[in-house]
Amino acid sequence: MQIKDLGEFGVIDLLAGIVMSQRSGSGNARSFSFNLTVDNGDDTAAWSIGSQSRPGDDRPVNELFTTDTMVEGVHFTLETTPWQDLGWKSLASNISDVASMGGLPSYALVTLGLPSETEVSHLESLYTGMMEISNEYGLAIVGGDMVRSPVVFITVALTGVMQGRPMVRTGARPGDLIAVTGHLGSSGGGLKLMLEGDSSQSDEADFLRDSHRSPRPEVAVGQTLVEAGITTAMDVSDGLGDDLSKLCRASGVSANIFADRLPMHPFLRSRFPDDCVDLALGGGEDYVLLFTGQPAKVNHVISGLPGGAAVVGEILVGEPGKITLVDAEGAETPAGSRGWDHFRPAKD
Fold first, then answer.
1. What residues make up the domain containing 26?
2. 113: helix, coil or strand?
């Protein structure tokens, strides 16, 4: 069997199973009162760092840790993602993971793989983008590594911190509503526009391209969810269909998504009227937050969030991870396996 036969999420399950079954313990950190609170399989790992707390808040402090890699030709091309935008996006994906737990980003280590022919001016532009997003979100780059590589790649390891209990993927229950905190599909629409070679200048086109090149992690919204008592969440990085499937697998439930409730920006609907639902379900890299909870709580939270936030479905008893799309007439189609999978065979 080859890893393409398992798919990305099957490979993740395999490796996580090896680690969890063969790891001898939590290691040296426990000697310093670092207690693991979120293990393998979520947006970040988390551990409590003892009794530290903010003045007036006795909830434990949790440190979060995540890492992500972007590889030229796999996650981006320099034709569709200029160097400065690449710097922004390389940190955005990690910041979004921290946001999905309800935390604030703190420190980052950056590893670069670069061809020796890389222009110095390109490297400067890359770090301009990194510094822009770092300064906006209160993050400090504190080191890293660099190697020669036949293609450009960037690996970011990022820590975050939060007061209280991190939101996780394992708490969805039948009867819960499913909601997202913003518009879906705009990033995928921007990428589609560029891959089709459309370089037209208009508010519509510029919005879609910017959505892909400069996504904005929802850190403040993540903290709002935690304060409202939401305990189950993740970010939408691989597409709503696949990401909701991951959450449902972790929680042992299935779900319906209502096609007529998907929040899509008018620019996306206008530009891609026939593809907007597929882009909303599988476009990926929107970095809005997906969360679940009891109906009264979810509806209350949604009422206080910015435009684009919406209830999009419901959690059901059923095959873990099975996601069904229900259209306005009640017709049902599978909604999973539309998003990004590193090892899924390419379609002809």
1. 3-163
2. strand
